[in-house]
Amino acid sequence: MSFRLSYRADPGNPWFSWQYVRDNSDTILAAVREHASLTGRAVLIAVLIALPLSVLAYWFRPLAGPILAVSGVVYTIPSLALFAFIAPYLGTGTTTVLVGLVLYALLLIVRNVVAGLNQVPPEVGEAAEGMGYGRWGRLFRIDLPLAVPGIVTGVRLATVSTVALVTVGVLVGHGGLGQLIFAGFQNNLYKAEIMTAALLCVALAVVLDLLLVLVARLVTPWSTRRAR
Amino acid sequence: MTVASNPIGQAVVWINDPLNWTNPGGMLDRLGEHLTISALAVALGCLVAWPLGLWLGHLGRGGGLVVLVSNATLAIPTLALLTILPVVFASGFGRTPVVVALAVFAVPPLLANAYTGVRQVDPEALDAARGMGLSGGQLLRRVELPLAVPYLAAGFRTAAVQVIATAALASFVNGGGLGQIIRTGFGIGIAAGGGQIVAGGVLVAGLALLAEVVLGGVERLVTPRPLRRGRQRAGRPRPADATGSA
Fold first, then answer.
1. In this complex, do A198 and B76 lie within 8 Å of one another by their Cβ atoms?
2. Tens of pLDDT along A72-108?
3. pTM assigned to the model
4. By C-alpha distance, which of B54, B15, B65 is closest to B178?
5. A14, part of any domain
6. Exposed end of chain A (fewer CB within 10 Å): N or C?
7. Is A4 domain-assigned?
8. Count of structural domains, chain A
9. What Å distances lie between residue A42 and A85, A173, A211, B159, CA to CA?
10. What ipTM does the predicted assembly reach?
């Protein structure tokens, strides 16, 4: 247990090197692409599953408890264990990683969408019914648009944590940038490789998060108008 | 293929082999490592986050910092921190960097809950205490701290469960723990090691769920009954719920 810091000690193994980035730009780009595509697909699938689930939980109150409880239990299961359950059945392909990521993203999205739907004021719902909206019309015209802030919060949280979680896919050989981090670790602690991949990971999370904020602004023009 | 050929059957066989429990590097060894690493990491996190959170809450400042810390750690991949810290500590491999890395992930829920716990104290209670002549330090120790205990417990539960879950990843940097069983299984290959992989998964998941249930009970115990009901009715958002994944 020594706490000697080594960050300046080693000129042959710098924290960051453009040389490394230039020489390995193909590998790095491929890793970023895999990382982004895994994240995008996982969040998209999770949204497609989570929205109907949330609407179910919103329409039929008794279902809300079980839906949230089950996704809560899945969320508590450590990622490594989840991949360990899936891999023997689905093999060591991207499918395993995708399924794991989707299961994790589900809870974050469902919980926030349900919260968003529940905070739609009851007067608004009554007014909509009075205007003759049916259940579906009210859902698409009133409830979902008003729940957009909740949906966006859920999707943003899910996206950022999915970006971080993809790296665990190293276990089955599809970890995107995690692949580089792990390779750097095995390659005698090649700091430049570890650092580049880690920074790109965080950058990807930030970029995707900003993109989602932008999309949210575009689909809810009224929210910015009111703020002004 | 006389023995069960599906992964679950293989897992049952693997778990039922006493050697897999008692061997060096068997389940008992790994469980001990896992618990030691997790306990040290949570203790370290508490040592850093609780005083800071309580103090910031007492001052009523730094809410932005608390949110920033939570969001930043959410974006950092666990694997990156686990691999970078062994480089920072020249000791290279071993337990210290793993404990520190896990402690980093324990800090946000502990910090956020300590901060919220102090901030949610009824201002009238604070006024009354001040009127009785309590100084700032006494106020924190005798009024704010006791009233923040339920929040501290909630943060502790979230942090501990998360650390136990994340500790499984320590196996990637040869840090030991139950994750090592899964990694070894993948090392053998899915065809031969499928049972071991699933068995390791069951152990890791079981430990996390067990910790969640036990610490949830502890949280209920230390929350005085009137506060329990009050919190449910008021439906205060618990910041810890939003942070973290493993």
1. yes
2. 888 888 888 888 888 888 887 888 899 999 998 998 8
3. 0.82
4. B15
5. no
6. C
7. no
8. 1
9. 18, 17, 16, 26
10. 0.78
